[in-house]
Amino acid sequence: MAEPATVPGAPAERREGRLKVTGTARYAAEHPSPGRLQARPVPAVVARGRVTRIDTAAALEVPGVVSVLTPEDAPRLAESDDATLAVLQDSRVPHRGWFVALVVAETLEAARAGVAAVNVVYATEEHDVALTDTHPAGYVPEQANGGYPAVREQGDPEGAFGSSEVRVDVRYRVPPLHNHPMEPHATTAHWEGDRLTVRTSSQGSGVVRAVLAQLFEMPAERIAVHAEHVGGGFGSKGTPRPDVVLAVMAAKRTGRPVTVALPRRYLPAVVGHRAPTLHRLRLGAGRDGRLTSLRHEVTTHTSHVKEFVEQAATPARVMYATPNSRTAHRVVPLDVPTPSWMRAPGEAPGMYALESAMDELATELGMDPIELRIANEPDTEPDSGKPFSSRHLVECLREGARRFDWDRRDPRPRARAEGPLLIGSGVAAATYPVLVWPSKASARALPDGNFLVRINAADIGTGSRTVLGQIAADVLEVPLERVRVEVGSTDLPQASLAGGSSGTASWGWPVHEACTRLAALLGDRTGPLPAQGLAVEADTAGRADADSPYARHAFGAHFAEVAVDTVTGETRVRRLLGVYAAGRILNARTARSQFVGGMVMGLGMALTEGSTMDAAFGDFTESDLASYHVPAHADVPDIEAHWVDEDDPHLNPMGSKGIGEIGVVGTAAAIANATHHATGIRFRELPLTPDRVLPGLTAHRT
Q1: Which sequence positions are flagged as catalytic?
Q2: Which of 105, 472, 479, 482 has the most neighbouring CB atoms within 10 Å?
Q3: What is the number of alpha carbons within 13 Å of residue 495 lying toward its C-beta?
């Protein structure tokens, strides 16, 4: 039988952990490549207009500068579904930070000096970057991100709201947010004849290869893309970004390997961001707390380059039972960088607004906020009417309340103080959809008694290698150390990208299936294996992507305790607790790390992270980690993550759900609700920085 550390659920250590902490693991810009050049883009310094002239003479005279690519002479690209990749193809400037040239040099220092020497002349045009919910250019799109319908309506939500005994009509605002992975976006590209090798920081090397084949009009078989180690992405590396296209173009021009590593301050403008969202929530209920009407309407922005609509109203279609509902998205095209995926797109901002509004409704009713949520627990998914494959939100709320000593909480705001500190606690629910995509994997038994699992999965810091190895070892009934896992290359069996918390659920299925078949072959076999071993491949196409008769979601409950300083306006989180129902947990150690990491990100969303679009310059004011404040160690309190046992047979052979994103969903709302409990003041715009909190406290005193 398998050893205890092999069994899925066991807290096995990350297999590549030692490589990373010792610096042995190589990232996209770190692989040695003889003769490699360094390239640095030139960003536009106007918010809208056209380039009328680029003078590269001074840049080419900088020692070490080899070439400067401009829209006049850069390699031509074929059309793509993603217009953000059409770099150096024409003279337009759709937003500040759009790349207008690329300096290629022998060293990073020379490339940087070359960028400073490029002279760009613009014809500027008036720009508009201000998002309002009454903007005349706003429209209702056909769909939101992920293919969700932009509008869903059931019953008579307006009439039911007007006749409800208790009503809440509130607005919330979430500012632009940025991904900021530890490893910025980087690519090294090298042409050898008509073959292209790319090392890039990506959540899906297969997607990168397909896009490059389209852009450069070449067979995908002549492109190899490797992303063995990826230093985070949070959605911003889910699809190719301009760095990979620029690196391939520069390598084609120079005939030498080229690395493009984007400076961090460039990222907000070119790799996507979470778009700001303006929320209006209208909840109607009876005196018993049961919802009679739910309306969640969201306004967000997109760019003129490519439409992307944050699907922030979609969680309201899942969470609570009501006969009358309307969820709608409206989008305003502005002269801003193109927004894109950021961890828990839609759910993170949407659940902040919905769960804050539920807390406000509980206050209006004089009802415990946990009991309000339980009173509105649906029997089936409200939007589709499908039965849930599993839904244990109530258990999460009850278990969280027990662990958090919720029954000892005085529900009255401002009831607890420690000197100048006001102490409060809050709760919020969480949800995230179960996504599974087709993938292929191979499993090989080797003559030495070991096994090799190969799949083009991505490990973006989540521990994929380890968990996939555990799945294989469990099926094969061998110790984990006898299973080697290869990921992160298009040389391996094709797999889906790492996004939407779909990775392990998607990749584990073919690994499980291939190992099951291999175990059966080995069980029927006698005698030694051939020198090349015995291999089996599995493909889940047609099954992983088949329609399910069930609504499949993970659920959770977040609890927070905060201390608000009445002198400075500073809000500190003292405790965070998350309890989740996320299917079968495959590795307790990496799962806890994912849950806690998401909660820390939610803490940042609530208290420190926020970006400002400068109306005059059309630029994000907070463009690096000196001004965009992610939580530091001192901001992170005692955090606990737990889960309830959940046996869901309607998912995949492992019974697992995604866990990478649900940790961030609901955390900000729990903290905001705790801040209201502490102060008696409802702050409806994130983040809850002292400049917002202190004036509220001062006004409350007067």
Answers
A1: 661
A2: 472
A3: 37
